[in-house]
Each structure stands twice: as C-alpha cells, then as structure tokens.
Amino acid sequence: MRAWLGTRGGGATTSVAVVESVTKVFETEGDGVRALDSVSLEIPDHRFTAIMGPSGSGKSTLMHVMAGLDTVTEGRVLLGGVEVTRLDDTERTLFRRERVGFVFQAFNLVPTLDVAANIRLPYELRGRRPTAEQEMWIAELVTMLHLGDRLGHRPYELSGGQQQRVAIARALATRPSAVFADEPTGSLDSRTGREVLGILRSAVDEHGQAIVMVTHDPIAASYADNVIFMADGRVSARYGAMTADEISSLMVGPGTRA
Amino acid sequence: MSGSIRAGVREHGASILVSGLSAAFGVVLIGAVNVLATAVRQSQGGELVQAPLTTVSAIFFIISLYVGAIVTSNTFSTVIAGRTRQIALLRLIGATARQQRRAVAAEGLRAGLVGALAGGAIGAALSLASVPLLVGSGVLPDLRYQALSPAMLAPVVVVVFTTWFASWRGSRRIVTVSPIEALGVATQQGGDALPRRGLRLFLALAVLVVGTAAMAFGVALPRMVPVDGPEAEIVMAAAIAVAFVGGLLSFSGVLMCARFFVPGLLGAAGRLLGRSAPARLAAANATRHPARSTRMTVGLVIGVTIVSGFQVAQTTFLDILRDALSAEPDFYAAFTDIETTLTSLITVFSILVGFSAVIAAVGLANNLSLSVVQRTRELGLLRALGFTRRQVRLMILAESTQITLTAVVIGLVLGIVYGWAAAQSLLGAIPGARLAPPALPVAYLVLVVVMAALLAAAAAIAPTRRAVRVSPVEALSAA
C-alpha cells in the first residue's frame, strides 16, 4: 500500500501530473453534470502551472482529482508517478499527507491551532517529529515568509495575507511532489495578492517546487510558466508564460487574440 | 421557506423537546399531587400529606426547569456560534445587534410555545388516562378524582417564559459579532475572547460564595436552634428552603466559573490520553476553544451532579435516619414500617430525578452533535491535509472522552457535596440525628460514570460518521 512512499524524484519523468481521459460526472437529482469530459493533459515538474477558466469550466474539479481529493468517474490520474485513481480513500489520504501541499482560497488553517502548530500540522498528522533537516527547512520557510513574530498567534488574529503565507509555509513544509493552490489570491487585496504570488513564484525558481494554481485572475496567471484554459469540462487551450494583458485578451474570446 | 423550517427543526428540535418534557413533567406532577391528596384524605392524617407533597413536587419541577433553562441557553449559544457568518452578513447589511438578538429570542419563544403546549397537552392526557387505569388495577381507591385542574396551566406558562429567557441568555454572543466576519477573510470568529473577564469572574465567585454560605447556613440551622414540638417543623422548613435556594445559587456560581477552570482540566484530561496525533489535536481543540468545550462539559456536569447528588442524598438520608432510630428508639416507636415507606418514596424520587437527567442528556447529545456539524469545514481541511477518516473519528472520540472524564469528576464532587447538604438540611432537625459524613453508593456512582461515558460517545459518534462520509471537497465548500 505504501509502495509510493520514497519514490519521489525518480528523475525519469518530467511531468509531475499525468491526466489520461478523465471524466467526472456529479450525480445530481435526476441527471448528472459532466464537470470533466475526457480530459487529458500533463503538468510539468518544477514549474508553475496556472489553470484558468470561467466558473463551471471544471478547473477546480480538475485540481481536486489531480490532488487526490476527489475520485474520477473514468480515466487515470498519476501524480508524482503514483496512480492516484487506483487508491482507496485511506490510501489517498495518506498520499495527500505525504506528497501533496494545499493552499485554498479561505479557511486554510485549523482555527484552534496557532501559526507554528498549523505549519507543523502535516508532521503532526503523520505522528512523526520533523528530522533535523526538516526543522531547518521549516525555520527557513518561517524566515522567508516573515512569520517569525507570528508563531504564537491564532488564525483569527492574522490578516488575510498573513493567513495565506502560513498556508503556503504549511504546504511547502513537507516538500511535496506538487502544491495545489485554489484561487490563493481570491480573497486578498491586489498588493497582498502580488506578494503571495511572488512567494509561490520563488518557491518554483529557488526550490524547484511544482505548483498548480487554479485561478480566474489574469494577473495571477501571468506569474505562471504555463497556462491551461478550461471550458465546459475540456481543455480548450494551453500556452507558455504570458503577460496579464495577453491572458485577458484570450479570455475575452479565442477570436480576438492578436 | 421549507428549507428554513427544516433548519429550524434541526436547530431547535432539542429546545422544543426540552420545554415539552419540562411542561409535561410539571403538569403530571400537579395531577399526581391532586390525585394523591384526594386518595390520602380518606385515610387518617391525610391533611398532613398535601403540603409536603406539594413542596417536594415543586422542588422537582424547579430543578427540571433549571436544567432545562441551562440546556436551552447552551443550545442557543451553540446555534449562534454556527450562525456567526450569517449574523455578520445581516449586520453588514444594516441589522442592529439588538434586532438580531430579538429575532433569535423570538425563535426561542416559538420553540418554547410549541414545546410547552405539546408537552402540557401530553401531560394532561397522561394524567387523565392514568387515573382510571390505577383505579382499575386497585392501586388507588375508587373515588372521585380531579385529574385535571386549572393549576396545570402554570407550568406551561412558566416553561414558555423560561425557554424565552434562556434563548435570550444564550444569544448574548450576537452582540460581539462584527460585520467584518462576513467578509470571509477571518478564518473563524475570535469570539472566544472573554469581554470583561475580571468582572465576570468576580460575579461568578460572588454568586458561588453567597450560595454556598446560604447552603451551609441551611445545613447548620437545625443544630444551632434547639428543636422542640411544633417549632421543629418551622426550623426544618426554613432549613430546607434556605439550603435549596443556596444550593441552586451555589451550583449556578460553579457553572458561571466553569469557563475559568474547565479548559485547564480538559487539557489535563487530554494529556492522559497519550501523544498520538488525534489525541494531541483533541487536547489542543479543547483548550484553545474554551467556550465550546466548556459548554459541552457543563451539559454533562449538570446531569452527573443531579443523578449522583440525589443518590448520595438518599443514601445519606437513610444513614441519618437509621442512626436516629437506634439513638432514640422510644421516640420513633410510633412509626412502624418506616423503612418500607422510605424505600417506596425513594423509588418515586429516583423517577422524578431521572426526568431532569433525561433533559440534561437531550441537551448534551444535541450540543455535541451540533458542534460536530458546525465543524464540517475544519474536519474537511484536516481530511484534505491527510487525516484519515479513522483519525478524525479518533480525534472526536478523544475530545468526548476528555469532556466525559472532566465532567464526571466535577459532577461527582459537586453531587457528593450538594447531595450531602440536601440530606443534612432535610433531616438535621429530627431527634437523635448526628452530623453524618456523606454516604457514597459506589456501585451506583460507577453506573453513572459508565452511562455518562456511553452517552457522550454515542452522541459524538453518529454526527462524526456523517461528517467524515462527505468528501473533503464538499466539506471545504460547506458554508
């Protein structure tokens, strides 16, 4: 069951995530909603990838199935070389704990725990103490994210930007295969948002962390190395790095692209 | 609209049930006193029975009212905690805190009305139906009984007002909800911080000290005043009244102080449960969310105190009586078969106490399950970050174990103190009575502990199963 533990960084693959003809149907009263319609794509390792699209395009669902948060109706998902779609609920949970980092739009932190405990939560959940090397990494993250004087604070005592920085520190703390960020700047003002995006960017550049970010904000997507567009449960286009203006013009309609 | 009605039943179901139980209890007690008084009046010395009977049933009704009020107030606090976002949004749009609090109190009034009327009707029907049954089976002599009386409206009205007041008390956190909390930036309310901490502690201690002093006075009164003839009865009645009111005050003081010492005890209990991830998180949850954990603990404390307190009172009562009997055999020669009478009386008392315990149990179960439901997102986050379903279940179970351990210890201590004080004030004035130590019916107390633990675990397990069954994705998107 734990065969995937320690298989990180095989070196052979350049994709951190592989999605093969994945379909996800949500059963609602009467008929189902096809959130993902036979989607296939690869997410490059050590890169910052943005997934864009209007609400209902399936971008969040795509993130959830890639991260092992949700099951698929059909198809396969590999993350860091592990076939996530073959794991049962408990195996997926352990997989997330060991190999995936998360930053959500809001409600990222456990309200009863202070900042230090929230950052260490992944280790706490494993029931193991961080090794000396991991302690150094956590200390480095705390310094990098300017959280040194906040460690004893509870989440409600922090601003939105500070909360997101704590969530990022937690997501990076275990050096996961990939960090999934769901609208990480969605509830922040633009200056704080840019700061958070800069942190994510430098985690990719300086530490080779693979990050997948779901967003509908062209400015946020302009920080990424790759931009994937979703529409009606399908991948409609994918591009390399672009400016916010280029992304905006693409979003208005495929025909208007210069 | 139908959605809000359903939500209303889910949130207020327990309050409706509690007020229904209290009202039914009050109505049945009045019916029973009427019927018994009629039956006894036929035999010699019957006039002597009605007054004590009325006093005893009034005491039991007040206790059930008191328990019901605390349970309802707690339930409303929990409901409000779950509605913080919605309240903040309405505040943002322009509703005043006062308006919101009035609206919540109106929900309390409606719950009280529905519950008390239904409960009163059921109580009246029970009284009406049981009289012919009891006469038919030969338990009661065949007389003209008045099974229904206008006085039965009194408990119904009292319960409605008590529920209304309790919902007003329980909704006081509304005043501290800030409109900003609607904006979604704040992870969760910081409402745990206690405003005017010093003043609250002072008030709580004042109530505790005054109540305990009154209770001690009630216990000591029979020994300070020389008793003889008819004066003994007056002294006894005064002792009982002072000790009862003092006891209620003193217990209220303990509950008001709970916020200041329960979280620490919970943390200590949590450390007994080991160092596994679920146990450590559970301990952190109890100490870092003091309002929530105190509310749940208090619910169980009330139940344990009442049940164990009455048992201690009865056992001590019997001890004192046996003591007095052997000390002054001549004085009691006229009373034959006193033990049999007492045993049947105690059976009746146990049923009456059981009623308040049921009300406390309803409150506890409801409070535990509501608070698990309210934590859906937190549990979803833990699941997303790698807590398995089993670990989430273990964490909730560890929390409820901490609460049970703490509440049982507090409840047993309080039960022994109040039970002993009750027995002393009741019988301290009779000839030959000595100041006896509290009697400890160990087997019964163990049973109370086991029942409390089972109840707390059962109340937490069902909602936790529901909470972990939803996928983390759904849990995180839950409002």
What can you tell me about this protein's structure?
- The complex is a heterodimer of chains A (258) and B (479).
- Chain A contains nine helices and ten strands.
- Chain A has 258 residues and is of the alpha/beta class.
- In chain A, the strands form two sheets. In chain A, strands 6-7-8-3-9-10 form a six-stranded mixed β-sheet, with helices on both faces.
- In chain A, helix 5 packs antiparallel against helix 6 (160-173) and helix 6 packs parallel to helix 7.
- Chain A starts with 14 loop residues before the first strand and ends in a 6-residue tail after the last helix.
- The longest helix of chain B is centred in the middle third of the chain and has 43 residues, at 229-271.
- At the A-B interface, helix 2, helix 4 and helix 6 of A face helix 8, helix 11, helix 12 and helix 14 of B.
How many individual helices of chain B?
14
Oligomer: heterodimer
Mean pLDDT of chain A: 86
Helix content of chain A: 25-40%
How does the helix and strand content of chain A classify structurally? alpha/beta
The biggest sheet of chain B amounts to: none
Helix content of chain B: over 70%
Roughly how many Å apart are the termini of chain A?
A: 51 Å
Biggest sheet statistics of chain A: 6 strands, mixed
Q: What's the total count of β strands of chain B? A: 0
Q: How are the strands of the largest sheet of chain A arranged?
A: 6-7-8-3-9-10
Parts with pLDDT < 50 across at least 5 consecutive residues of chain A = 1-13
Number of helical elements of chain A? 9
Query: N-to-C SSE series of chain B?
Result: HHHHHHHHHHHHHH
In terms of per-residue confidence, which ranges of chain B show pLDDT below 50 for 5 or more consecutive residues? 1-5, 185-191
Helix-strand makeup class of chain B: mainly alpha
Q: What are its keywords?
A:
heterodimer; A: 258 residues; alpha/beta; 6-stranded mixed beta sheet; 4-stranded antiparallel beta sheet; globular; B: 479 residues; mainly alpha; 14 helices
